[in-house]
Amino acid sequence: MSNPAALHARPALHWSSEALASILCRCFDGYLVPFQLDGAAFAYRFGAENVCLNASRVWLAGEQVVALALISRRGWRSRLAAFAIHPDWRGKGVGKTLMMQLLDEAHERGEKSMTLEVIVGNDAGQALYERVGFTCEKTLVGFQAHSPAAFVNTQALMPCDPHDIAQRMAAQVEDLPWLMAPETAQALPGTGFSLDDKAFAIIATGFAQPQLRALWVAPQARREGHARQLLSLLHERFAGLMTPVAVDQRLAPLFEQSGFRIQPVRQYEMRHRLN
Question: Which UniProt keyword terms apply here (predicted)?
């Protein structure tokens, strides 16, 4: 049976984190990039991303899981945090129907836009999103530190509360990729750092490798090399420091000049403006 009309959707809140992680892994089986996640990591990651389980959907055909969509929400903005169709149902025309349902529900909630990320090379996924009205806005990349020098504590890096950094950023920053936004960064266990009270960063420490999740320079201190200096100090302090694949590609020179290598996976950030 592959008739989209025969499917029924239920809010994801009816499943535990363990069950949703298992569903997500099954639906991502054979995906372009290997995907593994357990229940604890699911709750840790998607909680910080403001996934709303009441707005997220699991589609079923009888008792068989067909697809899962995770929806993050912040005010009038939403994000498709994950969308995966079970291998048995791929290529059968259900994707467009399910996406249109998600967009209709976002519109009914009063949201003004929905964003998503799609891996460059996932041509089928990108084509689906374009068919339902999404357009590419940015190319996102990831970085990892390499060959750090031995860290010498010069007291230049001052620990500070990630929440304080997020508040500063929120007053000044607009339209950051969702995973690098201050709301996401402060929700993850980690530490903030300040350099001369001019440049700030948030490092998430709960992953297998430390992750840079926010980087911000006060407006009056920009174009003076503070971001590069801060990145270099963090690169020394945290061996293997990396970012998610969520950094605007236009920042690549800054990272590469600070001891980071760009990673091979790239994503397009896409947006649908809901009217």
Answer: Acyltransferase, Transferase
- Give every CB contact of residue 33 below 8 A, 6+ residues apart in sequence: 119, 265
Q: Cα–Cα distance between 106 and 160 in angstroms, integer?
A: 37
Whether 255 is in a domain gets the answer: yes
Where is 81: in which H helix or E strand?
strand 77-85
**Residue 122 domain-assigned?**
no
Whether this model's pTM surpasses 0.90: yes
Residue 71: how many CB atoms within 10 A of its CB? 25
Query: In 206-258, which ranges are continuous DSSP H helix?
Result: 226-237, 252-256
The C-alpha atoms of residue 141 and residue 28 are separated, in whole angstroms, by: 21
Q: Are 76 and 63 in contact (CB under 8 A)?
A: no
For residue 180, the domain's CATH number is 3.40.630.30
For CA atoms 21, 25, 27, 33, the dihedral sign is positive
